[in-house]
Amino acid sequence: MSEIKLLAATAATPADYNLAEGVLWDDRANLIRWVDIWKGRVLSGELDSGRITNIHEVSIGETAGAVALAEDGGLLVAAARGLATVSPTGDRSLGPDLLGERTDVRFNDGTVDPHGAFVVGTLSLTERTDEEVLLRVWPDGRVDTLRDGIGLSNGVAFSPDGATIYHVDTFAGTVSRHSYSPAPFNPEEPWVIVLDGLPAYPDGLTVDAEGALWVAQWGGASVRRHAPTGELLAVVEVDAAQASCPGFIGQNLTTLAVATAQEGLDTLTDQAGAIFLADVGVSGLPPHRWAGSTTIPYWRKETT
């Protein structure tokens, strides 16, 4: 067994965010993008000398579970019950409800897959139901169910070759994998647990260029790097109990950013709600981009 690297991250923003999530790097704009979920804020920041400066934000008027980049230069957002777009000129549009009859549920974490579709899961707004789902939304509005029976759907990521999807069920405490392609998803193929028995709740997830998994530890003040086989390789500590999401940022994707939250804490004695940065010695993968339009998204095409 190889030696486990212990690394420390440094706060790069003030401790301003209630529930920061979804941090990623926009290579075309040279900006960091992230969300503050409950406040519905979609934020953009500049990276300079180890600091992140918030330069712009958009409110979508409801929860913002995740943000993704689009091919046309706009942004795609996991809104409360559907998708939202922010066009390159700043125009906002809310899409239709995708969650059906359930009223006590919202979208949570999500990411774009290697084929330009958006993969996003749900969480219950009341008690645990184990009825949450992971959906794939295509740019034309088609929706596939990739997984059901989830406790709380959280981080989603893909292997470097795009042939494997990884998914976090926070309440189950697991990270699982499944084969992946643009073909119809095979529900008969079981999801395989990669990580179980973690020291805290697994939350956000990213994969680096070597194929290793980086898993935020909600309640564990850290991000853990694991081999795809499950072996623990490194731990990055942050001065915030609720680590929510890791993401690689910077022009060479060599800096690990870790979003954190104040939610669930009665007393703020650390830097909860800041975004942290660490040099971890490996690089990340560039985010995939939504293949649909953010100027005329699929839900507006019939009326234009």
Written account of the structure:
The protein has 304 residues and is an all-beta fold. The protein has one domain (5-303): TolB, C-terminal domain (Neuraminidase, 6 Propeller), CATH 2.120.10. It contains no helices and 26 strands. The chain has strands spanning 5-8, 10-11, 20-26, 31-36, 41-48, 51-59, 67-70, 75-78, 83-86, 92-94, 105-112, 118-124, 132-137, 143-150, 153-158, 164-169, 174-179, 192-195, 201-207, 213-218, 222-226, 232-237, 242-249, 255-261, 275-279, 289-290. Strand 5 (41-48) and strand 6 (51-59) form a beta hairpin. The N and C termini lie far apart (60 Å). The relative contact order is 0.19. The model has no long low-confidence stretch (mean pLDDT 96).
Please write out the topology.
Layout: E1 5-8, E2 10-11, E3 20-26, E4 31-36, E5 41-48, E6 51-59, E7 67-70, E8 75-78, E9 83-86, E10 92-94, E11 105-112, E12 118-124, E13 132-137, E14 143-150, E15 153-158, E16 164-169, E17 174-179, E18 192-195, E19 201-207, E20 213-218, E21 222-226, E22 232-237, E23 242-249, E24 255-261, E25 275-279, E26 289-290
Parallel strand pairs: 1-22, 7-26
Antiparallel strand pairs: 2-25, 3-4, 4-5, 5-6, 7-8, 8-9, 9-10, 11-12, 12-13, 13-14, 15-16, 16-17, 17-18, 19-20, 20-21, 21-22, 23-24, 24-25
Task: Write a short abstract of this structure.
With 304 residues, this protein is mostly beta strands. It is 0% helix and 49% strand.
N-end to C-end Cα span: 60 Å
Helix content: under 10%
Order of helices and strands: EEEEEEEEEEEEEEEEEEEEEEEEEE
How many domains, as an integer? 1
Annotated CATH topology? Neuraminidase
Total of DSSP H or I helical runs spanning 4+ residues: 0
CATH class: Mainly Beta
At CATH level 2, the architecture is: 6 Propeller
Structural class, by secondary structure, is mainly beta
CATH homologous superfamily title: TolB, C-terminal domain
Using DSSP, what is the number of strands? 26
Assign an overall shape: globular
Widest sheet, order of strands: 1-22-21-20-19
Which blocks of ≥5 consecutive residues have pLDDT under 50? none
- Strand content is over 45%
Mean pLDDT over all positions: 96
Radius of gyration: 18 Å
Largest sheet: 5 strands, mixed
